[in-house]
Amino acid sequence: MAMELQPPDGRKRVKVYELRDNDWFDRGTGFCTGQVLDEIPRIFVESEDEPNRVLLETKILKDDGYQKQQGFCPTASAQLVSPTMKYVLTDLYHAIRDLDCMDGAERHGYGAELPRGRRMRGDLVRRFALPTLLRGPRNWATSPEIEQIVRAASMTQPGRDALSKFIIRDEYIGKLVPLVTMAEDLESLIDLHRLCNIMKSLILLNDNTIIETVVADQIILGVVGALEYDPEFPALKANHRQYLADQSRYKEVVPIRDPLIRRKIRSTWRLQYLKDVVLARILDDPTFSVLNSLIFFNQMEIVNHIQANAPFLRELFSVFDPRNADAKRKDDAVQFLHQCAAIAKNLQAPSRAQLFANFISHGLFAVIAFAVKHPNPAMRTTGIDILVALLDHDPVMMRGYMLKAVNEKKTPLTDTLIDLLHAETDLGVKNQLADAIKILLDPQIPLQDPLGRAGPDYFKLRSSNLLSDAFVQQHFDESSKRIFQPLKQLADRESLDDLTFQEVTLYAHLVDILTFFVRQHLFRTRNSIQSESLAPRVAQLLTAPQKHLKLVALKFFRTLISLQDTFYQALMTRNNTFGLILDIVLETMPRDNLLNSACLELFEFIKRENIKPFILHVVEKYREKLEQITYVDTFQSLCIRFEQLQGYEAEADSTLFSQEEASSARRIPLNGQRWQGVKGLDADEERYFEAGDDDDEDEWTTQDDRGSLAVGTPNGSSPLMVKPLVDYPDDDDDEDTMDTTKPDDVANHAQSEPLSVADVEEEAGSNPPSPAQTPPAPERLAEKRRRDDEDEDELVKLAAGPKRRSSTSSNSSAGILNRKKNLSIGSTGSEKSAGNLSGIASAAPKRIAINLGPAKTATTEADKSCTEVSTDGNEKENRDDSQGDEDG
Amino acid sequence: MSDLDRAIEQLRACRLIPESQVRELCYKARELLIEEGNVVSVDAPVTICGDIHGQFHDLMELFRVGGDVPDTNYLFMGDFVDRGFYSLESFLLLLCLKVRYPDRMTLIRGNHESRQITTVYGFYDECIRKYGSANVWRYCCEVFDYLALGAIVLGASSELEPTTSSANDTTQSTMPIDDTELETEVLNSRGEVTMSTYRPRQRSSSDASTDSRNISPPRDISAAPGQLGAPTRSGAPGTGAGGDSNGSAPGSRTGAVLCVHGGLSPLIDSVDKIRLIDRKQEVPHEGAMCDLLWSDPDEIEGWGLSPRGAGFLFGGDIVKQFNHLNGLSLVARAHQLVMEGYKEMFDGGIVTVWSAPNYCYRCGNVAAILELGEDTSSGGTVARSNGEYGRSNGVMGADSLSTVVSPGRRYRVFEAAAQDTRGMPAKKPVADYFL
């Protein structure tokens, strides 16, 4: 052990504090030495005023001593305490110098292990430095000590606390600030780098008060000034001061007079700059969240101030008075509102609601109307952004306003938007418009989240919706007519080869919106699809030369298929839709590309879900085409399925109807409507069966979402593989093949075929299929009837509290509906999520999702929506159980 | 100089291109990507890169170390955006290069190429910040939906040309006849070899005359349906003596290399199943497409829960089986930070490649890229499937599966770009403010 620990420049001046009852008492200033007496390292502090008085004498004890200290003395950075007297030097000017020693002590203190050998050198004794930093700029040599002290102190929580306390009490940052310019005057880069490090460390202490101090008017420039000299980039200097000093960046449309709020605005801006620019690289998570919460609270106060400030709002909205000629000011005011809306997004719902309500009552809609018609695309974007913020906030409210306008025979917002969508040339704006229209014209959202709106509010809303339902439908039909007009006009078009770029984009958006509508509320859309005969138009787009347009159209049909709804199935089987899709397959066939994969996925889905009407239709009508496609086995499998179905029907015809019904229900669980045809059940029974159905619903939506892969093929048979000898069937295969393809069926098959074919044709061509024919038909008819009923009374059903079950356990066809609705809540809730797609994906359970349940706690990067998956996973588990029973 | 070249120049200087150009670029890219399969076929030689995460200057360092486009054929395995401060510049540059040199640049999708993730992890904010509206973000997300889900590298050489300490180009010098061949090599950013491993030479190069190694043979598996589950190999293991007498060279047929961002999926047992995904969608929260982008290998058996909340963990047995079944010798993936830049697992059955040095500007890791050489022994021509069907060499001649050897792998390790070659990385501040 070293004997002499005096630093070369003599003793260090220190301040000694004693801890009594959790308070620090100043015992005076003195000079500190470390000595080793009797093999025991000790610290002495002799008083400055009375050289003979010893302020502190303490042994540096080994493990025992330090571990005890830990308990007594939470402020550990400069702790120096004996078990009997607890002293701490928190004063930075008088602080510990020897990091190495500190480090060892800290480890020791936490009882982790004894200091390693090298740490046990004599300098275990702390030496206190008195950096004479403030005595004059020349004495820079001491600066590294501060840097070290600060850094060392930030290593441990107690150290950070102590340091923060000191920094705040002593207004230390204020004292550092002038040093920046001094160092700059001296062109002392080393010192500037040190100052930068110190400043960083102080900010990263993560103390609210410190950070608030940092952004104060008189301090901020000094702080960022120091931070301009980042030692990690020695050759560079940032220009934070220049940026922050630029007063012109702050724009005022209408002056805010409250000085407190003005200050908040300034400091919020600075905080954001610190967060995004100055500290972006070095921010740790805690500091990041401290910054964010400071910003949040500031913004909250600012917004509250604004919305409560009626004169201000009046003045603000009067800017848009048509008599006002100042266009620039109007633009600025739009920007201002946009920023308010953007900030409001982060606020809690009540204050956001209040803000928007106030804005609206002062005439926000007029502003939006002004902005969306602005000649400058950027302003249009801004205007729609405001609108989207409103929609995200409360679509019900927005629709309410819209319908009110219709009621009052004013031009509703939707019409304006639709016209804009048709005319808009800026693709970005067009995109936004399409999104906004989707939300506005989605009349089922209000029904979706009664739970979220529990309370009197909910009933109010519901009743208003009940009243307006027919009206909503009417409006929806009219709007649809309007919006899909260009699509309808496609009928007059002979060739799609000369589509302009703008047209292509427009059609893509329209089909996308239509797909959304169909998925989102399949009943309301029926009318317009039927009356405007939109499906053939979309089918027409399958022949467009633009591949992405084909894809959009394909997506539409893929959505129709997944709905498994008779009406849409009928649509699909007309217009040569499948022929066109097969043409795409044939066209792209040798190549492996996106379009080809999308088509394959569609047929795979039909095959996997065993959607009989489609299998019958496709094979019957396009057998030749199918047979040309041999590079994947999907199409052969379809043909095989077809054969099986034929055989099955022969059997079905010969059996009793009731029996057939029951067995078909078991065989096609994926259709999910097996009980729909059975009438006369009492309520309880019905509910029970409906719940069961719902599980099946889950099954098929799930499979839809799983992409293209049949989970039910654990044996690893690939659909792509040619299976010449052994055909490993997948699950649903089992149900059919095992049950139906008995040898004599196969024998019957040939003769029964023609008859069935005729049936199929009929079913495909006309809407109401005759119940006695193909097995799915009776169910579907009943189901259709039922759905029609539901369409009207679903509001009532949803409203009936006790009867209402969670959306997932309600009856099947409404089950789809409910689920969709929930989904759209999810997707509209997060503005940018991929609308229905992501929504669908997030809510649909899958077999393997069971496992995801426990995993969510440890979620690292996955976003929150994954939690939805896990809840569904449980249902899925149940479902699997029940299915197991069935199978058994 | 075309607009595109100008845009590339501008982006290389880390300056953004105007919104209208971004839009145009994205449309062009879309046209291109729509023609790609879900699994793109790429011929060796190729340089495989992992996550970039908006670290533009490090991307430039990557190009410096790995060679410039189009001289080097690149394959980027996703996660171009988020986290770093230059997601836009990085992604747009890569996209420009893709459009300019479609055959020399392959981009596949990572889990961060998604609307939901980018709104949380920075790309969305960056777009708003740099362009003032979300339009550019929308264009980019549209492109994300078109990105391929994986790539398969064909015709990689089993043996590396030894690197002399300075050169990084593979000259035609022949390795002295020896009974070992260079399997892996690690180079630092100055091109100096820091580590090499050798393995016993297979008897391949000896009879090049009969070398008809079929990297991508026609699919004729229908002739032998039983092969799939249980290979009926007639030769003794290890001898490479398959029962067939077609004269194919026994020995080192280099298997294909599958590249995906995340890893395997329990729903995907063959590469061809990936083909059946309609990939044009937001990355789902589950299902095959999700797993390919989210899963991680782990030291477990079988499948496990992923702590990420999406995708799965999969063990060595899964990798082994998958590789065997598909005739792959290696799965290359990214998705996980590895401090050394690359990490081989499961006897070299899978490798993680990470190309964002000092991740998030603070992780202190190095980055790596993986070079696979071209197999020149078959005259430099490889039956390239090029999107044609028939890529499933996985099930072809199970008798030769036993001799599938992993390709020679050259890792170039590099550190974060030197401080003075870049500005201080920082986000762009908002210009004006009202509140």
TrEMBL record, chain A:
Principal location: nucleus
Record bears the keyword NAD: no
Chain intervals with Acidic residues compositional bias: 690-702, 728-738
Segments of skewed composition (Polar residues): 824-836
One MF term in the entry's GO annotations: protein phosphatase activator activity
Pro residues bias: start-end ranges: 768-778
Residue span, Serine/threonine-protein phosphatase 4 regulatory subunit 3-like central domain: 145-644
GO biological process: DNA damage response
Residue stretches making up the PP4R3 EVH1-like domain: 11-71
Location of region: Disordered: 690-837, 853-888
Matching Gene3D superfamilies: Pleckstrin-homology domain (PH domain)/Phosphotyrosine-binding domain (PTB) (2.30.29.30)
UniProt keywords, alphabetically: Nucleus
Subcellular location: Nucleus
GO terms under cellular component: nucleoplasm; protein phosphatase 4 complex
Stretches with biased composition (Basic and acidic residues): 873-882
Protein name (Swiss-Prot/TrEMBL): Serine/threonine-protein phosphatase 4 regulatory subunit 3-like central domain-containing protein
Source species of the chain: Penicillium cosmopolitanum
UniProtKB/TrEMBL annotation, chain B:
Composition-biased stretches (Polar residues): 161-175, 194-215
Family: Belongs to the PPP phosphatase family.
PANTHER family: SERINE/THREONINE-PROTEIN PHOSPHATASE PP2A-RELATED
Annotated segments matching region Disordered: 161-254
GO MF, any single term: protein serine/threonine phosphatase activity
Protein name, as recorded: Serine/threonine-protein phosphatase
InterPro entries per record: Calcineurin-like_PHP (IPR004843), Metallo-depent_PP-like (IPR029052), PPA2-like (IPR047129), Ser/Thr-sp_prot-phosphatase (IPR006186)
Catalytic activity: O-phospho-L-threonyl-[protein] + H2O = L-threonyl-[protein] + phosphate
Lineage, broadest ranks: Eukaryota, Fungi, Dikarya, Ascomycota, Pezizomycotina
UniProtKB keywords: Hydrolase, Manganese, Metal-binding
Domain of life: Eukaryota
EC numbers, comma separated: 3.1.3.16
Domain Serine/threonine specific protein phosphatases, first and last residues per copy: 108-113
Active-site residues, as the UniProt record annotates them: 112
